[in-house]
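=== RUN LOG ===
request id: a7f3
mode: sequence -> structure
chains: 1
length: 322
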Amino acid sequence: MTAPSLPRRPGVDALARIGHTVRATDPADASPHAFPDGGTWRTEIPSVEGPEALAVVLKESARLAVPVHRISQGSGVWMLTDDEITEMVGSCAERDIELCLFTGPRGTWDIGAATRTDSGGAGLRARGHDALAGCVEDALRATALGVRCLLVADEGVLWTLHRMRAAGLLPADTTFKLSALTGPVNPASYAVYERLGADSLNVPSDLTPAHLTEIRRVSRAPMDFYVEAPDDLGGYIRMYEAAELIRRGAPLYLKFGLSRSPGIYPYGAQLRDTALATARERVRRGRLVLDLLARHGADGGMSPLGSRQPGELRRFPVPEED
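=== RESULT ===
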């Protein structure tokens, strides 16, 4: 792990010299938590939808010297062949990067009409027993092929997969990541998802630094945060806040999304050019964030590459089988 440094806040020295009032940093706002390796932040490249996009990310991250802890995919396990999953698992293993694939059917692709209304209905949640079972099937298939991180968008699916992990039906080192479109927006809901089995949790990218501090007062579960959010998550670009997001939200995954780009879920060859171009640009966006952190002396505290476990978290008791 690189040693933490004392960060320089953007622009404050110049502002102070011209007499502009600068708000003092309150040490009490800082998160007291870290990853089990002692690091406070890791990196993630999202929306890497198949082996070809993954190859682009790996090549570009090597060229730009962007450290990558996790690669995630959004279309789902069921949108990949066994050979494609196996190739992605092998490519990530060679670079000691965690691969995270989305589980199964979700409401936004279902026949239910409520998700097409202004209210959005139940959103990404799995509708009915069959959708739940599809997510279970995806989890079993993916882990059998070597995947050890699964994206989940439904509380019931999360609890079910956590129970399967506890029962030995899924490998004990499998981790579950809560989707950004299900992300909790207050400390109580964040703590509930942790107890349901989440090992890292996407939070909406419009949460304020004060919100992150509130969450850290009740939970140490790793947080996933889009420093740049895709348009369907608001399109926010918060690069200059990266150091403060780490300070308040640690342990935190910096996610390098991409605004002003077309959606690619569910991915197929008809979207190939867009998927490869956006994969390449997400890595470049990561380089911009890392450069900004370095210029401000805030790039210390990164977890060692290859780190993936979240540390000890709090869970609801798993009931015994009837």
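=== NOTES ===
The CA atoms of residues 167 and 321 lie 10 Å apart.
Residues 272-295 form the longest helix (24 residues).
=== END ===
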